[in-house]
Design brief:
alpha/beta, binds magnesium ion, single chain, binds adenosine-5'-diphosphate, about 675 residues
Length: about 675
């Protein structure tokens, strides 16, 4: 029989119908997937300790003789516990085996074995539960420990794996990584890799196998993402007159070095004749809008129209206002187009965009509606990119013929990860805040502090400053003790804050109402704004110096950071208070991180660690497949190499149609099939 990676697992020797179902639970349906069921870890039997030397609470390997034949006690139907004692001549340890009659009966009295497991000491007596067992005279080496499900043991999986590998070894199919790449990056063959990832005879062999498999997975990921995003394109929109310094010197502040760098990156992209595809990452308050304005200025002065898309009305309006200020006296025209723009006004703006009379359109997703046309759309900017799907972004750029694309994100993520998530986007980072920004002092307290906090806010309002109180969204029909923003607003405006001007802002209000409220907050006609996360993105009111976040446990780390970014924008010392009565580990950890740092990159990093990349991005929207062996956060060096290799492969063979790349192409499809995006 030959090895066919698509063969149903039930045909692998020792599997069969019943065990196949168990493997299915581990997401293993085929022989190929079985080979990629990688060990979770390895037991090194050469590193055994004496029973007395075992550390309580830790996993270790003990070499010992079975003292007596295990005896079983059925404690309830379907659960039998086998117990025995083992000794290394000096000390004794209890062994407890759950429900594994086969293992228990295989242990011979007087014979020496290796036992691997966690050592505990209930009532002062050393004990090891559910050990992995190996005869002491078995050949040395590392034993794989597999991810398991009830009914499968690591040894059982290992035996099945041996059979699959036996088949695989006889298989003549080629290595999917082309020879040349393997050579260049010093990678072992796939045959060697599969044998040694499962049954390495030493650590070095296992590491070599791992390296190759991680590389392969990341290479496929990179290739897949690049193909998803499309290759570099020529464009007719080229900047020939670089007028950025004209604009930069007109700014009311000195741009930061990072801003200057980012603008230069963009302009040189746009001078190249190829279409710009760039991600601008910058923490909240790092000044992305000014960068966008500088790039638009150059674009317009070189004859292009620009579109800037924001995720909310409020933000779009604020962008327009900032741009109008930046462009005063330059002759550049900009208009706002959102779903709440009155019909007549909309018609006028659309006509003016189509005729090429208006230079810049700022708006929400209304901008991507079918009947919005431009005459020479050369630059598309999306703000707070993480809120838009890949699809929406490309719908906007299809309104021009190959316009330049700049996406801005305030969720800073590690550069290496950004490389994958944003495929072939180039990246500029604003890693510096404008001078004079102060750290926002952050505290976490429970709800018994409410009255003290209200007094704290009043003190600020009395000095002419403003404050936010953020409430979590309450889903309809949700039964929780949470108060909605509306109820909270009523309570505070009638009681504690009756002598102050209090406003309410939430997502379900009509856009016009939202704008009015925001407008009044900007003008300090509203002193205290009770709101939901609608203020999360972009809103810029430098006079606001306090933010309370109610039920902070309901928010993710990055979201808390975004919210906090609404304060600390002015000269005043600002404070953010997280209020929560939740006692969970995650909540505690999040609060600790928030209180200890203001650095968005650190926070995003921690958020990723807490949630994992899948959750962090919502894998569906971003089309990130699940990785089996590589870790996007740990294997960054390998990621860089894989990216380099992917670029090389694609530049020689963009369609992956060469015979030597066939295997890779198949593998990419398999990897991305799970997310259905290629
Ligand atoms: P974000 O990156 O969060 O979108 P903004 O573009 O809203 O940040 O900028 C935040 C505030 O900082 C704005 O009021 C803006 O005018 C101001 N700003 C931007 N760049 C600088 C700078 N170099 N020096 C001082 N203030 C700046
Ligand atoms: Mg912004």
């Amino acid at each position: 029989m030959s090895f066919n990676p698509d063969m149903d697992i039930k045909y692998v020797k020792l599997v069969g119908e019943k065990r196949a179902k168990l493997f299915n639970r581990l997401d293993v349906y085929t022989a190929g997937q079985l080979l990629r069921l990688f060990p979770r870890t390895y037991i090194d039997f050469s590193a055994s300790v004496s029973i007395a030397g075992a550390k309580i609470g830790e996993y270790c390997c003990v070499k010992a003789v079975v003292d007596r034949t295990p005896t079983g006690v059925m404690i309830r139907k379907g659960m039998t516990i086998f117990k025995t004692a083992v000794t290394d001549g000096e000390s004794v340890m209890e062994l407890v085996i759950f429900n594994n009659k086969y293992l228990a009966e295989s242990l011979e009295q007087g014979r020496e074995y290796y036992f691997y497991g966690k050592v505990t000491a209930p009532m002062g007596r050393l004990q090891m539960d559910s050990p992995v067992v190996e005869k002491a005279d078995a050949p040395a080496g590392l034993r794989p420990v597999y991810p398991l499900t009830a009914g499968l043991t690591s040894r059982g999986v290992a035996n099945v794996m041996k059979n699959a590998l036996e088949l695989y070894k006889n298989n003549e199919s080629e290595d999917i990584i082309p020879e040349q790449i393997r050579h260049e990056y010093n990678l072992c063959s796939s045959r060697y890799a599969y044998i040694n990832i499962h049954f390495p005879s030493c650590r070095a062999d296992m590491l070599a196998a791992r390296k190759r498999l991680i590389f392969e997975e990341l290479l496929c990921l990179q290739l897949g993402m690049s193909r998803l995003r499309g290759a570099k394109e020529k464009t007719g929109f080229v900047i020939s007159r670089d007028v950025k310094s004209e604009f930069m010197s007109s700014l009311p502040f000195l741009p930061t070095a990072a801003q200057v760098r980012a603008v230069s990156d963009c302009i040189s992209d746009m001078m190249s004749g190829e279409r710009m595809n760039r991600l601008l990452q910058g923490d909240v308050g790092s000044g992305k809008t000014a960068v966008a304005a500088a790039v638009m200025y150059c674009a317009v002065k070189n004859g292009m129209q620009c579109a800037m898309m924001a995720p909310t009305e409020i933000l779009a309006r604020q962008h327009l206002e900032s741009l109008l200020k930046f462009f005063e006296g330059t002759g550049i025209t900009a208009e706002l187009l959102t779903s709440s723009t009155p019909a007549k006004e909309k018609r006028r703006i659309k006509a003016s965009l189509a005729a090429g009379e208006t230079d810049i359109a700022v708006g929400t997703h209304a901008l991507i509606q079918d009947d919005v046309e431009f005459s020479r759309l050369g630059l598309v900017i999306t703000d707070e990119q993480h809120r838009f799907g890949v699809g929406q972004r490309s719908a906007l750029s299809e309104k021009g013929s190959s316009p330049h694309v700049l996406v801005m994100s305030a969720t800073p993520i590690p550069r290496t990860l950004a490389m994958i998530v944003y495929g072939d986007l180039d990246i500029s980072v604003l890693d510096e805040l404008p001078p004079g920004r102060q750290k926002v002092d952050t505290y976490c307290v429970d709800s018994t502090y409410h009255q003290r906090l209200y007094a704290f806010i009043k003190k600020h309002l009395d000095r002419g400053l403003q404050a936010y109180i953020v409430c979590p969204l309450v889903a309809e029909g949700e039964e929780t003790p949470l108060t909605s923003a509306e109820e909270y607003y009523e309570k505070l405006s009638e009681n504690e804050f009756s002598s102050y001007s209090v406003g309410l802002l939430h997502g379900k209000m009509k856009p016009k109402m939202k704008d009015e409220v925001m407008e009044r907050f900007v003008k300090n006609e509203i002193q205290l704004l009770i709101c939901t996360t609608v203020v999360e993105v972009g809103v810029d009111v430098p006079n606001a110096a306090v933010m309370l976040i109610e039920n902070a446990e309901r928010f993710g780390l990055s979201q808390l950071h975004q919210l906090r970014g609404r304060v600390g924008r002015g000269k005043e010392k600002s404070t953010c208070v997280l209020i929560t009565d939740a006692k969970g580990e995650q909540t505690k950890k999040r609060a600790e991180i928030m209180c200890s740092t203001n650095d968005g990159f650190v926070i995003a990093d921690e958020d990723l660690k807490l949630r994992g990349p899948g959750d962090f991005f919502g894998s569906r929207q971003h089309g990130l497949p699940t990785l089996r062996i590589a870790d996007m956060l740990e294997d960054t060096e390998m990621l860089r190499k894989a990216k380099q290799a992917a670029e090389k492969i694609l530049s020689d063979d963009p369609q992956l149609s060469d015979r030597k790349n066939e295997g890779l192409k198949r593998e990419i499809r398999r990897l991305f099939d799970s997310v259905g995006s290629i």
